[in-house]
Structure formats: C-alpha cells, structure tokens
Amino acid sequence: MISLIGIGEAGCNVVSLFENHKEYNCFLFSPVQENTKYTRKLPKVAKEEDCEGEAPKLSSYKTKEAIQDRVQVFLCGSSFSANYTLAILEQIKEKKIEIFYIKPDVDLLIGDVRLQERAIFGILQEYARSGLFNSFTIFSNPAIEKTIGEIPIKKYFEMINKNIYYAVHYLNVFDHTTPLVGNLSKPTEVQKIRTIGIISVDKLSEQWYYKMQEDRDVAYYLCIAASRLENDGKLHSKVIQSLKSKPRNAFKNVTYAIYESPYETDFGFCVAHTNFIQNNSLHTE
C-alpha cells in the first residue's frame, strides 16, 4: 500500500481522486479539514516562518502510525499551505518520500506568492538531490492544459487534476506489474528530478507535462490493447525503430516496457529524469 498526502487545496483535490483504490490510503492536510486520523487542519498563521511551529503533530490522532513506508506527497508551491511541507515531512523522514509538485502559471504570480513558489520549488529539488526525498516530479498546469486542448473554465482544475491522477496511478501500477517485453532499468541515484508525459503508441511522440531542461534517462511505458498484441506482427519492430530514432548519448539512455491495456484502446506515458535543478527562468510550457 502507498500512502498519499495532499497538502493544501490543490494537493488534496488530486489525492481525493485516489480514494476509491484499495492500494492507497489517503491523507488530506489543508485549512478546511478537521483533525482526524486521515485529515489534519493546517492553522492560519500570519507569516510563512510561523508554519514550522504550528504544523500538525502527526503523532496525535494516530496519523503517523497509519502512514506506510512509501509516501507520495502532492502540493502546489503557490499555495500558502505549501509552507507547511518541510515541517510535516520532517516527522516521517524515515519513509521513502516522493514529491509530486504542481506548478502554476508562474508568469501570473506576483509579489510574495511569486517569491514563495520560487523558493519552495528550489528547496524541494535540493532536498531530493541530496537524497532526503526519493524523487521530485514536476507537473505544469499550462503544459498539461496544452496536452488536453480546450478546457471549459468550470472544469479547468478538475481536468488538470484527473490527468495528474491518471499518470501517477498508472506509473504506480507499472511499478508492480511485469511487462510483456522491454528493457526498463532504474535511473542513476543522482537523477532524482523528473517529469511525466503522454505518448502516442505508434510514433512514440511525447507531450510533456513539464518542459524538462537537461533531461537524461527517458523511459516509455506502452499499454496496448489485447487484440493488437495478439494480431499485429509488426508492432514490436515499429516500437524498436521509433526508440532507435530518439536522441541518446553517453549521459542519456532510452528504455521501454510494453503492457497489456485494460481497455480496447492503446495509451502510454513517458518519464524523463535529470539531476539538473529546474528553475523559474526556464520555460515550463
């Protein structure tokens, strides 16, 4: 089982989408939550620096003992609640922590919020690079919007969050599923920073959820309908040819895995890894 922690409104909204899966136990931390085993109220404070002392104690309400060894944390860096992140995670630092960072449109941020987002974005990446977190995965709201196309205003965040949920859930499924064929390998220990994208199975063309700079290893996860797996004799050779056309060098590896799709359609994801700290001066769309 994987424990999911949502910090702030955006993080909680994403984590809530996992609640119907028995493979997860979900924790929601935000100013609107009540204090229970799986939900904790984040107090309102005057300044960011007050968050450390006011963070909820996970030892109360038996919250800490319910958190599993593998923890996935979701937050948006522009949310004031994100200032509680380090104080919360310090209490479970012995766990295997993976950060999923939701990046807003930084061009629209102003004043203290802009400075806060930049600071949290940088600090959490440094923590990941130092080994305190297992990984730091970046999602950009504007980049995800581009992969979807037209989104009604009332459904904007709902559709963005569902795309994040699907990507993370299926990558978790792949972690516990043996592929039919492939050459997946773990990235090197220093490559803690990553992003996710969707791909077309036929051409392996990527649509990234964040424009990564200096990406190193890239992995392709292909889910293909059962009928095609049984009848398309050219499929594997097409995949291999597409993989061979991808850029690679001494610092960049390309790997893949093929799984049977639970649907009658094909779909896939890609994951890019790097050890290079991303920053807000780089384009994220």
List the helices and strands and how they pair.
Elements: E1 2-7, H1 8-16, E2 24-30, E3 39-41, H2 51-54, H3 63-66, E4 70-76, H4 85-89, E5 96-103, H5 111-129, E6 135-140, H6 141-148, H7 156-175, E7 181-182, E8 193-199, E9 206-208, E10 218-224, H8 226-231, H9 235-244, E11 254-260, E12 267-274
Parallel strand pairs: 1-2, 1-4, 2-3, 4-5, 5-6, 6-8, 10-11
Antiparallel strand pairs: 7-11, 8-9, 8-12, 10-12
Helix pairs in contact: 1-7, 6-7
Protein architecture, described:
- The protein is α/β, with parallel strands linked by helices and 285 residues long.
- The chain has nine helices and twelve strands.
- Helix 1 packs across helix 7 (156-175) and helix 6 (141-148) packs across helix 7 (156-175).
- It is globular, with a radius of gyration of 19 Å.
- The protein starts with a strand and ends in an 11-residue tail after the last strand.
- 37% of the residues are buried.
- The model has no long low-confidence stretch (mean pLDDT 93).
List keywords for this structure.
285 residues; alpha/beta; 12-stranded mixed β-sheet; 9 helices; globular
DSSP strand tally? 12
Residue share in helix: 25-40%
Give the distance, in angstroms, between the N- and C-terminal Cα atoms.
33 Å
Count every helix, treating DSSP H or I runs of 4 or more residues as helices.
9
Helix and strand succession?
A: EHEEHHEHEHEHHEEEEHHEE
Q: Give the biggest sheet.
A: 12 strands, mixed
The overall pLDDT, averaged over residues, is 93
Decide which structural class fits the backbone: alpha/beta
Rough outline: globular
Report the β-strand fraction as a percent range: 15-25%
Low-confidence stretches: none
The radius of gyration is: 19 Å
